[in-house]
């Protein structure tokens, strides 16, 4: 297995150039889907994120890169308040979704996490059937008025996640019986089923083989037109292939944020240059 922390070769921009070009035409002036301003995160006395501001846009994939422990997951978790579940964590600063403060008292956190879905590093299907894994969210959020409607949502989500053909004849089998790559697509189908607006992915391919990884990357391309996507990855080639914007974190700071093509070919900061050329990881 190659060490995907270190780029083995110069990052190529050969793959879908059109997607990059189209997304890069879109101006940063438009209203962002999510706006994070001056975010700091503390675990007890230790500061893990230092005054980070980033906008996340629709129709675009934003990659978070940086060495292990620099705070990528911590920052990602701020975007749907997953840090609330960590008692030691304290978040300061402002995060808006469509202009609304996600930490405001009137924000329903269950609703927020449906609107801002999350896919984790390790596929984590429920120990239930494939059908139930996807149906659970729409059911608790009351998105279906009948059994038929629920079945339609399940089918549509599995199709969108590129898994339908592989599972349509075994919807009653356990989700945990699928392969790792299939489980990850099931988790993506589960996130999609509640009709989210933003999808957060924390190293979604790190437990997968190259073929399963390619499938997820393809899927990210397809989903980009429909959702704002933020993805944490240690794989430089992956960041270059799937994203239009890249944020480089180091020691809790956002060192550089810009067009993916520029970050990888002509970074402004020495620290970014050092990281993308594999000098530290
Ligand atoms: N639950 C926690 N309690 C205390 N400290 C934490 C917790 N989670 C993360 N940290 C610390 O916060 C810092 C940032 O961690 P984080 O997991 O966000 O980094 P990361 O960039 O995602 O790293 P990796 O690439 O290894 O996943 C690290 O120093 C880590 O030890
Ligand atoms: Mg992490």
Automatic annotation (TrEMBL):
Span list, region Disordered: 1-32
Domain of life: Bacteria
InterPro entries: AAA+_ATPase, ABC_transporter-like_ATP-bd, ABC_transporter-like_CS, P-loop_NTPase, PstB-like
ABC transporter domain span: 34-276
GO cellular component: membrane
Regions of compositional bias (Basic and acidic residues) in chain numbering: 21-32
Keywords: ATP-binding, Nucleotide-binding, Phosphate transport, Transport
MF terms in GO: ATP binding; ATP hydrolysis activity; phosphate transmembrane transporter activity
GO BP annotations listed: phosphate ion transmembrane transport
NCBIfam families reported for this sequence: 3a0107s01c2
Name recorded for this polypeptide: Phosphate ABC transporter ATP-binding protein
């Amino acid at each position: 297995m190659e060490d995907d922390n270190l780029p083995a070769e110069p990052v190529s921009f050969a793959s879908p150039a059109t997607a990059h070009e189209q997304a890069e035409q879109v101006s940063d002036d438009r209203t962002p889907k999510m706006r994070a301003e001056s975010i700091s995160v503390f675990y007890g006395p230790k500061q893990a994120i230092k005054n980070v501001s980033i906008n996340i846009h629709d129709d675009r994939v934003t990659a978070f890169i940086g060495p292990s422990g620099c705070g990528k997951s911590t920052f990602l978790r701020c975007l749907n308040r997953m840090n609330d579940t960590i008692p030691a964590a304290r978040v300061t600063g402002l995060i808006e979704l469509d202009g609304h403060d996600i930490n405001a008292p009137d924000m329903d956190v269950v609703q927020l996490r449906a609107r801002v879905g999350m896919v984790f590093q390790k596929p984590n299907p429920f120990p239930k059937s494939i059908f139930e894994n996807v149906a659970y969210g729409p059911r608790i959020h009351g998105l279906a008025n009948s059994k038929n409607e629920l079945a339609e949502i399940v089918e549509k989500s599995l199709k969108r996640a590129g898994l339908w053909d592989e599972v349509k004849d075994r919807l009653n089998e356990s989700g945990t019986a699928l392969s790792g790559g299939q489980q990850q697509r099931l988790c993506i189908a589960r996130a999609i089923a509640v009709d989210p607006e933003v999808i957060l992915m924390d190293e979604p391919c790190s437990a997968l083989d190259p073929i399963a990884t390619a499938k997820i990357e393809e899927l990210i391309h397809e989903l980009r037109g429909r959702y704002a996507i933020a993805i944490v990855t240690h794989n430089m080639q992956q960041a270059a292939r799937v994203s239009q914007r890249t944020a480089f974190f180091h020691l809790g700071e956002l060192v550089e944020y810009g067009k993916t093509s520029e970050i990888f070919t002509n970074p402004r900061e020495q620290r970014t240059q050092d990281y993308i050329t594999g000098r530290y990881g």
